[in-house]
């Protein structure tokens, strides 16, 4: 009997933890959205389709809403990081750069790394208490795709 109660309690607790953490990620997203809106006038749109983007010319962000809330927050921080790299550095416009040249590929990978770094710094600045290990897992997965692309763009469609 005691075991059954303990088991139900553990299931209930993990369910509550799940709801609480989703609330935490949702609140985090709202904070990032507010910051982007106030500081940069950048709107965020959530669409149920693959891909997370920062549109340089429109200055807007698109997030894949089919991801978990946790991943939506991490990718939102990353896309916000792109907006911040554009704000703090002189990047040559991408359309002026010849695709597949080494310099272009290195620039792209460089910006991707910067955007993840600045995304994490933004999380700290906004007081979001996140698990860096989990953020890093998403960071590594996404960066690896860019590194694969940079190695051989003509054979890689994913980026
Ligand atoms: Zn990126």
Can you lay out the helices and strands and say which pair or pack?
Layout: H1 2-40, E1 44-47, E2 53-55, E3 60-64, H2 69-88, H3 102-125, H4 132-151
Parallel strand pairs: 1-3
Antiparallel strand pairs: 2-3
This protein binds zinc ion.
How many helical stretches?
Answer: 4
- Class, according to the CATH hierarchy? Mainly Alpha
| CA-based shape | globular
Instruction: List low-pLDDT spans.
Output: none
Query: Which radius of gyration do the C-alpha atoms yield?
Result: 19 Å
Mean pLDDT rating: 88
Order of helices and strands: HEEEHHH
Number of domains: 1
Which small compounds were modeled alongside the protein?
A: zinc ion
Q: Which CATH architecture would you pick?
A: Orthogonal Bundle
How many strands, what sense, and barrel or not for the largest sheet?
3 strands, mixed
Amino- and carboxy-terminal Cα gap: 55 Å
Helical content band: 55-70%
Q: Indicate the proportion of strand residues.
A: 5-15%
Query: Which class best fits the helix and strand makeup?
Result: mainly alpha
Strand order within the widest sheet?
1-3-2
- Number of DSSP E strands: 3
């Amino acid at each position: 009997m005691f075991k059954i109660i303990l088991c139900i309690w553990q299931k209930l607790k993990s369910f509550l933890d799940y709801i609480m953490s989703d609330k935490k990620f949702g609140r985090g997203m709202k904070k990032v959205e507010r910051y982007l809106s106030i500081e940069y006038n950048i709107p965020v749109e959530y669409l149920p389709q693959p891909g997370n983007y920062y549109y340089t010319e429109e200055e807007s962000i698109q997030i894949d809403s089919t991801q978990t809330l946790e991943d939506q927050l991490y990718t939102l921080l990353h896309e916000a990081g792109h907006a911040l790299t554009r704000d703090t550095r002189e990047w040559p416009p991408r359309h002026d750069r010849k695709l597949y040249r080494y310099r272009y590929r290195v620039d792209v990978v460089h910006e991707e790394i910067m955007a993840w770094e600045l995304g994490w710094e933004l999380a700290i600045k906004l007081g979001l208490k996140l698990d860096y290990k989990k953020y890093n897992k998403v960071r590594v997965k996404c960066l690896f795709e860019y590194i694969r692309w940079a190695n051989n763009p003509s054979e890689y469609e994913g980026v």
